[in-house]
Amino acid sequence: PSASGSESLPSATASLPEDRLAFQVRALRSGDPKSVREVLKQPHLDPAAAGHLVPLLAWDEVCEQAIRALRPLAPRVVGMLVDSLLDPDQEFAVRRRVPRVIATVASPRAVSGLMLGLEDKRFEVRYQCGRGLALLHRRHPDLPIARSEVLAAILRELRVDRPIWESRRLLDQGMEDPEDPDALVVGRLLRDRANKSLEHVFTLLALILETEPLRVAFQGLHTEDPILRGTALEYLESVLPVEVREKLWPFLELDRHRPSAAPRPHREVLDQLMRSHESIAIQLRRRETTDSDSSSDRP
Fold first, then answer.
1. What's the pLDDT score for residue 12?
2. Can you give the pLDDT at residue 185?
3. Cβ within 8 Å of residue 95, ≥6 positions away
4. Spatial separation of the C-alpha atoms in residues 60 and 274, rounded to whole Å
């Protein structure tokens, strides 16, 4: 119901004659943004109200506050959150946003739910589940994540045709969590420019490979320097499973930069890649500045 169609609600901070939970539920279901926000900003929501918070994830006007309100409750309702993620009849906006809540729960149930989400038909659900797993893995590296399941998910992503690979976009672009952006492979420098299909694959690769060199290699692929790109490719050749490399390579369109010399020892390639990190960052910042100047010159 709209605000005009609902009865006036008392302030969330007023002295309430009614049961606390009943008040919270009544306000959350009111359809009035002000009343909803007053409840969402309360520090200790009743966990029994969580089921009324989940539908608010689909409401753009309050979804960020709903995510913040759900996170403290998430460990106690992770099963319900996973059910919302995996329910094909649930609103798409809920299913693509709830991984940001599940990813705060350091439990095998959260991991298994996000892993199942990697099989979803909608790319943005899979993308957000991948990000959630990457954040969980970064913060809680002892949580087990099955390598075989990750590899299977990566190979599924690589089985699409090029038009689909290149066309993927996010409806929630720009709504990512601001905290710890460098916990993800894409990092700050490429957050708005990287191909989303490629980013998602590298996010999943970071669950089974060392994250920092993978991030540098991912960034190196986006420079215009053939030596830096060649080093990135040489590193990837040395660490990617063969079946992943064979399916990924055509999407990179960088075969011409593949080193023609005999393969070098992995340690030597890794050291060169990490030494090139600053040069890669300079290249990307320079490109970002150039792109920004070009945009500002357009009428």
1. 44
2. 74
3. 84, 85, 87, 120, 122, 125
4. 41
Cβ neighbors of 17 (< 8 A, separation 6 or more) are: none
Q: What percent of the chain has pLDDT over 90?
A: 63
Report the distance separating Cα 114 and Cα 178, nearest Å: 21
Q: What per-residue confidence (pLDDT) applies to 182?
A: 57
* Interatomic CA distance for residues 152 and 155, integer angstroms: 5
Distance CA 206, CA 210 (A): 6
Judged by average pLDDT, the poorest of 225-229, 272-276, 278-282 is 278-282
With a CB cutoff of 8 Å and minimum separation 6, the contacts of 188 are 181, 182
Cβ 68 vs Cβ 40: under 8 Å:
yes
* pLDDT at residue 57 is higher than 80: yes
The distance from CA 122 to its chain's CA centroid, rounded to whole angstroms, is 14
Cα dihedral across residues 281, 283, 289, 291: positive or negative: negative
Task: Please say whether the beta carbons of 244 and 275 come within 8 A.
Answer: no
Residues in the chain: 299
Residue 101: CA atoms inside 13 Å, Cβ hemisphere, count? 33
For the chain, give every domain's residue range. 183-290
Q: What is the mean pLDDT of residues 189-214?
A: 90
Which residue matches tokens 């060392």? 210
Confidence of residue 297 (pLDDT cuts 50, 70, 90): low
Write the CB contacts of 241 (distance below 8 Å, at least 6 apart in sequence): 151
Dist. CA 261–CA 277, nearest whole Å: 23
Quote the mean pLDDT of the chain: 86
Distances (CA, A) of 154 to 37, 128, 134, 203, 252: 39, 14, 14, 10, 15
CA atoms within 13 A on the CB side of 169: 2
Q: What is the DSSP letter of 191?
A: T
Q: pLDDT band for position 44 (50/70/90)?
A: confident
